[in-house]
Amino acid sequence: MARNKFDIDEELQPQFNPHYVKRLLGYLRPYGRGVSVAILLMVTAALVSLAGPYLIKLAIDDAIPKKDPKELILLASLLVCAVGVIWVCQTLRIKIMTRIGQDVIVRIRSDIFRKLQELPFTFFDSRPHGKILIRVVNYVNSLSDLLSNGFIQLVADLFSLAFIIVFMFIIDVRLTFICMAGLPILFAAVFLLKRRQHDSWLKVSHKQANLNAYLSESLSGMKITQSFAREEENRKIFSRLGADWKAAWIPAVMVNFAIWPVIDNISTIGVSLVYVAGIVWFKGTVTVGTLVAFAGYIWRFWTPIQNIGNFYNSMVTTGAYMERIFETIDEPVTVEDLPGAVDLPPIRGHVEFRTVTFSYDRGNPVLKDVNFVITPGMSVAVVGPTGAGKTTIVNLLSRFYNPDSGMVLIDGIDLRTVTIRSVRKQVGVMLQDSFLFAGTIMDNIRYGRLDATDAEVVSAAKAVRAHDFIMSTDDGYLTQVNERGMRLSMGQRQLISFARVLLADPRILVLDEATSSVDTETERAIQKGLAVLLKGRTSFIIAHRLSTIKNSDVIFFIDRGRILESGTHETLTAKRGAYWKLYAGMGEEVNGEG
Amino acid sequence: MFPWLWSYVRRYRFLMVFGLVLAVGVSALNMVNPTVAGTIVDKVILGGQRDLLWKLIALMVGTTLLKSLVRYCYQMMFEHASQNVIRNIREELYDKVQGLDFAYFDKTKSGDVMTLMTGDLDAVRHFIAWVIYVSFENALILVFSITVLMSINWRFTLIMLSVTPFIAFFALRLARRVKPTHLRVRDQFSRLNSAVQENIAGNRVVKAFVREDYEIARFMAENEAYKQRNLDSTAVRVRYMPRIDAFTGLLPVILIVTGGLMIINGKLTLGELVTFNGLMWAFSNPLSQVGGLVNDFQRFSASADRLFELYKRTSRIVNPPEPAALGRAKGRVEFRHVSFSYGDGPILEDIDFVAESGMTVGILGPTGSGKSSLVKLICRYYDCTEGGVFLDGLDVRRLDLRDLRSNVGITMQDVFLFSDTVEGNIAFGRPDASFEEVKAAASLADADGFITEMPEGYDTVVGERGVGLSGGQRQRIALARLLLKNPPVMVLDDTTSSVDVETEERIRGSIARLSGAHTTFLVAHRVSSLARADLILVMGEGRIVDRGTHAELASREGYYREVWLHQSGREVADRVPSDADLVAAGTGKA
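Predict the joint structure of the above. Result:
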C-alpha cells in the first residue's frame, strides 16, 4: 500500500458526490419526528413573520389614511402576537435541533471511531496519525452546523420561499413574474462557480490535513527534533505548510464570497424592475400600498434565496470533510470475521503453521512457506536477523493479518473460521512497542483484564519484578503516566506492559522483545517467575539475548522469511550453523576479544 | 491577552483600518436604497415626478453594484489579514512549543496542543476574518440609520430607540453567562482530541488485548460529555438570543402605532413613515445580530485565553544570555558531583566522572537506576539540581543550546521515526546531506542492506513511529540518523537492544572507524556491547556503584560480573571463575 506522508495530499475525488449528503441525511432519519416538528415550527415562524409587512401595508393603506386609531391598535396587537409566536417557535426549534444535531454528531463520531477499532495496523501505519485524528474530531465537528441548522433552515427557506411567491402572486401576478426574472441569471452564476468551489475546498481540506499531520507528528517527535537541534528546519516546513493552507484558503473563500454580490445585485435589479413596472408599465393599475408591500416582499423573497446560497456554500465547504469521513467509515476491513464464524473454544495451545506465505506489500513476501507444529505447553524462541519476519509470525498467530496462502491453526482449527476476538483473548501479545495509556500504573496493568482486583494487579506486577520500582514512585500504583509512559524508563515501561499481558492470563503467550530494555538481573528474576507462569502455556519469545532464549524447548532460526534451522540450544549449537554463528559465539566473543 | 493579540494584528492594522474605512462607505451606501425607495414613493408615485424615476433607479442599481464590490474587496482584505495573523501566531506558538523543555512534553498530551493549534486558532481566525468587520458594519448601519431617521423626525426616532436598552441588557447577560460555557466546550474538545489521538497511537495495544469495546466506552464518555457541554452552551444562548430577537421584533409594532398616531396628528408624513419602514431593517438587523456576535466574541475570547496561556509558558531550559563560544567540541565530558531529580524523589546522586575526548564510556545498571537520565543531562534535556555537567570544560548551562546539541547527539530508547521516506528520516539532522552521505551513514549503521531490499529502497515511506519496520530496523535507521550528523559526542541509549549480536558487532566496528575523535556513551544491558569501553560505569539506585574496564570489573565480585557470567550463558550460582576466564579478562584491555 502506498504510504502517505505529511506533505502529500490524499487522493482527490474529482466530483462532489451527492451520495454522501444522502448518507448524512440518513443519520437524521431516526429523528424524523423531531425534525418535522422543528420544520413545522420554523415554517410557522416564517409564515407569521410574513404577516409583518402585510399588517404594515394595511396600516399605511387603510388605518392611517382613515385616521382610525382602533384599527391601528388592532393591527399592532396582531403584530405583537406574531412576535410572540415567533419567539416561542424559535426557542423551541433551537432546543430541538441542537439536541438532534449533537446526537447525530455523537453518532457519526462514534461510527468512525468504531471503524478505527476494526481497521488493520496497515491503516494506521500507512498515513500520519494527525490525518486520522482530524477526521474523527475536527471534520465531524464541521458538520454540526449543517446538521443542527443547515438542513432544516433549507427546508424552512424553501417553504417560506413558496409562501412568499404565493403571497406575491395574490397581490400582483405581473409584478411577481418580473421579480423572478433574475433567478435564471443566479442559477447560471451558481452553476459556473460550482466546480471551482468544490475543487478549491477539497484543496483546503487537504492542506489543512497536511498541516495537522505535520503538527501532530512533530509534537510526538519533539524530543528528537530538539536533540538534533532541527527546530529551524521544522519551522520552515511548518511555515511552508501554513502558507500552503493560506494559498488554498484564499481562492476558496474568494469563490464563496462571490455568491453574495451576485445575489445582491440581482435582487436590486428585481426591485428596480418592480418599481419601473408598477409605475411606468402598469401605470395606474397598482396602488401605492401594493407597491410598498410588494417592495417588502421582494426583499423577503431574496432572503431565503440568500440563505439557500449560504447553505450551498457550507455544503460545498463541508462536502470535502464529509467525503473524508465517509471514506473512513467505508474503509475496507482486511481482517474480519467470516460469516458464520464461531468463537474459538478454550484452547490447549497447539499451534500449527501450514505452508504460510505472507506479505504486507504485494510482491514482497515477508514469510515464505513457513511450516511448524508446536504442542501445548512448549516454549518457542524465535530468533534471527532483524527484519527476518519474526514479528510477522506472531502477528499472524493473533490474526492481526490473514496469511496470503496457507493456514494458521490453533488446536487444529483454522483461525480464519473463528472470530477474531476469541483468538486474541486467548493469545496474549506483548508488543515491541510498550505503549502506555494516560492514567495510573494500576489502570495500565489492569488493561490486560478489566475485572482484575487490585491484589491481582499487584501480584502480576510482582511476577515481573515491577512491584519494587512502582512502590518507589511517589504515588505507587496510582502514579500517573501518559501516552508514551514518559518519566518511566524504557525498561520500566516494558515491565508494566509485561505485567499487563500476564494479567490477561492467555493460553498462548507471545513476548516480542518483551525485555530487551530490561537489565539482565531483572530479566533473570522474571524468568524464574516465568517458569511458573509459563507452565501449561504455549509461549513464543522473540529476543536477541542468549540468556532469554536458550532455555526454550525449541528455537526457530528465521532468515528472510523462512525457518532456516530449528532445535534446542544444544542441538543448534552442535550443528554449528547459522544459529551458532549468530548466538553461541556471544559468551566467547567477550572473553576472546575483551 | 489583548495586548498580546494586538502585537500580531498591529502589522496588518493599516490593511484592516483601510478595510474598516471601506466598511464605513458601504454602510453609508446601505442608507441609499431605502431612502431612494422612500423618495420613489413620495416624489414619483405620490408627487407625480415621473422623470425622477429613472435617475433614482440608476442610483439604486449603481449603489448596489458599488456597495457589493467594495464589500467583497474588504471581506477579502480581512481574510488576508486574518490568515496572516493566525499564520504568525501559529508559527510563533510552534516556535514556543519547540523551545519548551522535556518536562513539558513528559506531562502534556499532544492532543491538547493540537486543540490549541487547530480549534482555538480557528476561533481567533473567525474573529478577525468575520466578527470584527461585521460588528463594525452593524454598529455603523445602526448609527447611520439613527442619524438618517433623526434628520427626518427625531421624536419618532427616539421612540423607536426605546427597545435598545433592553437588548443591551440581555446582550450583556448573554456575554457574561456564555463565556464559561465556551471554555468548558473547548476544554472538553481538547479531552476528546487527546482521547482519540491516544487511541490511534495505541491501536496495536488495543487490538492485542481485544479492548475495542472498552476503548469505545471510554471514547463515548468523552464524546457524550462534549455533546453535553455543547448543549449547556446552547441552553444559555437559547435563553437570551430569542429575547433579543423578540425586542427587535417589536420595532414594527412601535412603527405603526406611534407612526400612525403621529400621522393622524400631522407630525409625520406618509412618505416619512415609508422611509422609516424601509430603514427599519437597517435598525433592527444589527440589533438582532447582537446575540450571535456576542456569542462569537466570547468563543473567541475563551480560545484566546488558552492560547495566551501557552504563549506565557516559559521553558525551564533556556539559552544563557551570553553563551560561551564552542565550535566543534573536542568531546571531553565531565560530571562534577551531579545530582538530579524530576521533582519527586532523587534520580541521580553525586555522579562524578570524566570522559576524555575520544573515550568510550559504557553504562550498565538495573532498570530504573538512572542510566538514561544521566545521559540526558549531557544534552541538557534537563538541568541537574546539584553539581555541573561540563563539555570541554564549559558548563553546559553556559552554552548555546543549539551549539550544545549539535555537538552532542543522542539516540533514544524509544525510537521515533517520522512519516517520511527512509532517506528523509536519516537526513533528519542534516537535511542538506547528499544521497551518497545518507547511504554511507546507513551502511555504517548496517541498515543499507535491508533498506535496499525494500521495493522502494530509500524512498520507502515509513509510517509514524516507524511502525512498518521491525524494532531492530527502526533502531538502525535511528542510528544512521545520528551517524550522519556525526557529532563529537555520541550517546547511544540502548540503541541496539533489538539488534542481533552480529549486527551490533558490525555497527560498533563502524562507529570506531568514523572520522574524527568521538566520545561515545553506550547505555546497554548486554555486556558484549560494553566490553570494549574505556570506562564502564555501573549504576545502582542513582549512583555510580562501580567503575572500571571490562577486565577490572569482570575480575571482581559485583553486579557487573554477575551480569557478564549470566549473559555468557554460564550459571552464576556458586560458580567460581575459572582461570581461563580471568586470564581472558586480564588480557582484554591491558
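Chain B touches chain A through 187 residues (CB under 8 Å).
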